[in-house]
Design goal:
By secondary structure, this protein is an all-alpha fold. The chain has helices at about 1-35, 40-60, 65-85, 90-110. The mean pLDDT is about 90.
């Protein structure tokens, strides 16, 4: 049963990999067609690269660090804020920026949870 689940995971991983490469190519094609590159386009390309990195990490170690999807979430939120433009209600912008700060704090906490610097190292 475990082997079947592992095979399903690998098939799903290949599907994600191929889909991401196709999406990356489509975005590059669109930028070439319009002959314009915006910050939102670049952030979308970074999102694709981060997904590819997550696929690589999972392929090599058969596990994903929780911080990788959190980095993707920060990039996605930044892109979302940029796409909304300046006509947005400032209150909503504060909520979105607050979400980025909370995710960044979560990453810091996750990185230092086993650190000897703060005295929480419980591994033996």
């Amino acid at each position: 049963m475990e082997n079947i689940v592992k095979q399903i995971q690998l098939v799903a991983l290949v599907i994600i990999l191929v889909s991401t490469v196709i999406a990356f190519g489509q975005e590059m094609y669109q930028m070439i067609l319009v002959q314009r590159v915006t910050l939102a386009d670049l952030l979308l390309l970074f999102l694709y690269l981060e997904v590819l990195a997550m696929v690589r990490v999972f392929w090599e170690s058969q596990s994903i660090q929780i911080t990788l999807p959190l980095f993707i979430a920060i990039t996605a939120l930044a892109r979302f804020i940029i796409l909304q433009g300046k006509s947005l209600n400032p209150e909503i912008l504060l909520y979105e920026a607050g979400a980025i700060v909370l995710i960044a704090l979560a990453i810091v906490i996750l990185r230092f949870r086993n650190s000897s610097l703060i005295g929480l190292n419980k591994k033996k």
